[in-house]
């Protein structure tokens, strides 16, 4: 299998001033809570301390602006909550019930998740994948073309460009070796994987094809070479799958595996619930009057 070679621009480094620098630079007030640091905002009896916002130090945005926005939001929330607590029309019992229900849901869900981590089998066999694929054909209808392609993007000043002018058409067994050797030295971008299908529209994101009839272009298994914006582009449609046909299993393998595992998680979650409830009944912990 030939690997994808992708040349990307260097990752832009994100810089930010840590909130800790901001708060440490200000001496702690002696009338504040020594454990929580300086009070930075107060609404009635509610106080916001430096330590309450230290988690914002890890943001990749400007810390001072983030802190200022957070403080404003906290103040607004405290004002509104205080007003709501005094309003006779607010049903506090209903709110307490909802809080309790939400807490219970979170507890149960986390219990299930912890047990699923231990019990879940994530191994999916080829037989299972093939059986799922066969039984769910309608789920794998293509909305667009899948293709197998060779694609090259080479700077105009690269030497011996004629060396691949014919090789990219892959008429001989030796051509791909010629292409790969050349691409390693000179290509800005190169893709060829005869084992894998990709959407044609993903190729269009990489190569500036204009005013083409996509259906005709793909069905003819077009092989083109052109120049634009300082580069030579080479594209060879090696094979294709028609849109509105069934997507090949090789393309859907990881998708099917994820689906099978999700079904296992769903079933396991219900089994865990049932087992815990049954155990409670069996141990005499339940009395219904």
List keywords for this structure.
alpha+beta; single chain; 15% strand; disordered N terminus; 289 residues; 2 domains; two-stranded antiparallel ribbon; six-stranded antiparallel sheet; extended
Instruction: Calculate the mean pLDDT score and round it.
Output: 86
Kindly provide the radius of gyration, computed on alpha-carbon positions and rounded to a whole number of angstroms: 31 Å
Overall structural class, as computed from helix and strand content, comes to alpha+beta
β-strand amount: 15-25%
Count of helix runs: 9
Q: Tell me the overall shape.
A: extended
For the sheet with most strands, the description reads:
6 strands, antiparallel
Number of DSSP E strands: 8
Q: Could you tell me how far the N terminus lies from the C terminus, measured between alpha carbons in angstroms?
A: 68 Å
Order of helices and strands: EHEEHHHEHHEEHHEEH
Low-confidence runs (pLDDT<50, min 5 residues)? 1-32
Helix content: 40-55%
Number of domains: 2
